[in-house]
């Protein structure tokens, strides 16, 4: 099974650190499957094979987490894709602004 992620070790990514975007180096990648296809809380149904969990189809939910070289791998900060780690500085700045507006509301 191949799992594709947005970034690989050694890639550069924009992270929210101390309320500002910083370009950091990916040191470790972790992917968690948070939800899989199925019905009734994940109970599979043999009469509907498309609802059975398998490693060859896209999963309904997943969470990508990254640890960066600059903030510590193994004992440092954990950044989540789309929340605190982004491909561009602009995406990171928009997320930071949205977070600030949410706090002010």
* Unreliable runs: 38-42
Count of discrete alpha- or pi-helical segments spanning 4 or more residues = 1
Alpha-carbon distance between the termini? 44 Å
Mean pLDDT: 83
Percent of residues in helical segments?
10-25%
Strand content: 25-35%
Q: How much is the radius of gyration in Å? A: 17 Å
Reported for the largest beta sheet, the result is: 5 strands, antiparallel
The secondary structure category is alpha+beta
Estimate the global geometry from the Cα principal axes. Answer: globular
Number of strands: 5
Summarize the helix and strand pattern as letters. Answer: EEEEEH
| Strand line-up of the largest beta sheet | 4-3-2-1-5
Q: What count of domains describes the coordinates?
A: 1
Question: Strands, helices and their partners?
Answer:
Elements: E1 12-17, E2 20-35, E3 61-68, E4 79-80, E5 85-86, H1 89-104
Antiparallel strand pairs: 1-2, 1-5, 2-3, 3-4
Task: Describe the overall structure.
With 105 residues, this protein is an alpha+beta fold. It has one domain. It is 15% helix and 32% strand. The protein contains 1 helix and 5 strands. It has one helix spanning 89-104, and strands at residues 12-17, 20-35, 61-68, 79-80, 85-86. A 5-stranded antiparallel β-sheet has the order 4-3-2-1-5. A hairpin with a 2-residue loop joins strand 1 (12-17) and strand 2 (20-35). The chain is globular.
């Amino acid at each position: 099974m191949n799992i594709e992620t947005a970034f690989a070790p050694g890639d550069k990514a924009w992270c929210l650190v101390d309320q500002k975007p910083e370009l950091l180096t990916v040191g470790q990648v972790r992917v968690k499957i948070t939800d899989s296809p199925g019905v009734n809380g994940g109970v599979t149904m043999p009469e509907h094979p498309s609802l059975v969990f398998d490693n060859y189809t896209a999963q309904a939910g997943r969470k990508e987490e990254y640890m960066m070289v600059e903030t510590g791998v193994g004992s440092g900060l954990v950044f989540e894709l789309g929340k605190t780690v982004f491909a561009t500085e602009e995406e990171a700045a928009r997320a930071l602004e949205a977070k600030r507006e949410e706090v002010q509301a």
